[in-house]
Sequence to fold (450 residues):
Amino acid sequence: MLPYLQRISSRILENELLRRILTNASYLLSATGLAAGMSVFQSILAGRLLGPANFGVLGAITQFTSVVNRFASFRMNELVVRYVGKYQEEGDQDRAAAVFKMASFLEFGGSILALILIWVLAPLGAHFFAQDSSLAFWFQIYGFIILANVMFETASGLLQILDRFRIMAVATAAQSAITLTLIVIIFFVKAGLTEVIVAYMIGKYVYSLSVTIASLVEARRAWGAGWWRTPLSILKEERRNLLTFAFSTNLSSTVSLVAKDSEVLWVSAFLGPVQAGYYKTALAITNLLQLPVSPLPKATFPELAREIARRNWDNVRYVLRQGSRLSAIYSVPVTLVLIIFGKWLIGVTYGPEYLPTYSALVILLVGYTFVNIFYWNRVALLSLGRAVFPTIINFTGMVLKVAAIFLLVPHYGYLAFAALLVGYYFFTVGAAAIRVFLDVRSQTQVEVTK
Fold:
C-alpha cells in the first residue's frame, strides 16, 4: 500500500498546476484543520452545556441568518474569480477593477436587504424553527453579523484570484481561536444560550472584517490607489453576461438553501429542537470527513478558470482526475473509521444523550464521501461558463427532495432528512460531474481537429 501511495503522490507533484493548487489548499487546510479541531471542541462544549434542545435552537438561530443572507446574496466570490481572473489574465486591469467594484455594490445592496428580511421574519423564524416566539429578539440580534459581511464574498473572491490564501487561512484560524476561547470561558462559568450566541457573533465579526480589510489592501496594490474610481461604464458590453452570471449563481444558491443548506431548519420545523440537535451533531461530526477536501474547490477554481481560458485541456483533465483520486484516498478510509467507531465517538464526546445521532451520521457519511470525490463539480462548470446548468439540476433535485420530505419524514423522522440529502447529492453532483466530463471531452476533440 505504501509504495502505491508514494507513486500516486510523486505523479501528482510532477504537475506544476496541481502542485500550485495543493500549495494554496494547504494554506487553507492548515488553518481549516486547526479551525475544525477547535470548532469540534467548541461544538462539544456548547452541546454539553446547552443539551440537545437548546443546541438545536442555537443551530436554528445561526442557520436562519445564514439562509436569509445567502438568499439575498449573489455569490460574488464566484463572479469575482470568474471575471476578475479573466481580465487579470488578459492584462485588462481597468475591467478587473470595475468588476470588483460592481460586485462590491451588488453585495452591499444584498446585505442590507438581508438584514431587513431578518428583522421582519425573525418572529416567524423563532415560532417555526425554535418553537419559542420569545427568542425572536435573538434571531434579530444575531442577524447583525450581516453588517460585517457587506462585501465579504467579493473580498474572498479577490483574495482567491490573487493567490492570497495565507491571509484567508490566518483569518479562519483567528476566528476559531477567539470563538473557542469565549466558549471555554462560558462553559466553565456555566452561562447559557445568550452568551454562546454572543461568542459566535464575535468570531464571525473578526473573520469577515479581517478578510474585507485585507481585500481592500490587495486591491490597492493590484490596481493603484484610485481603483475605486474606475467607471462601471467600461463594462457596458459585458454587463449582460455579468448580470446573467450573478443572477444564475444567486438562483442556484437559493435552490441550494432550500435543498441542502438549511437542513437544521427543516428538522426543527418538522420535528422540533431535540431532533434538530441530533441532526446538527451528525453534521458537525461529518466535518472530520470534509476537513481536508473543503479547501480544494477554492484553490482549484482560479486555476481551472485560467487553464480553461488558455484552452489547456490536458491540464484541466489532469486536475479533475487526480483531484478525485486524491480525495478518494482520504475520504473512503475515514468514512469507514467513522462508521465503525462513530457510536463510541458520540458517547465519549457529546454524551450518551446524543447517541440517536449515530444512524443519521452513517447515512450522511455516504453522501459526503461522494461529494468529496467530485468536489470540483461546481467550480468546473462555472469555469466552463455553465452557470445556468447547476441551477437547473439543483432546482430539479430540490423539487424532488421537498416533495419526498412530506411523504417520508412523518414515517422515518430525521433519518429521512439524512437519506434525502444523500439522494440529492448523488443526483445533482453526479449530473454536474457528467456534464463537466462531456464538455471537456468535446473541447479536447475540437482542439485536436484544428
User: Anything to note?
Assistant: The mean pLDDT is 84. The chain has one domain: 2-449. The longest helix spans residues 16-72. The two ends are 43 Å apart (CA to CA).
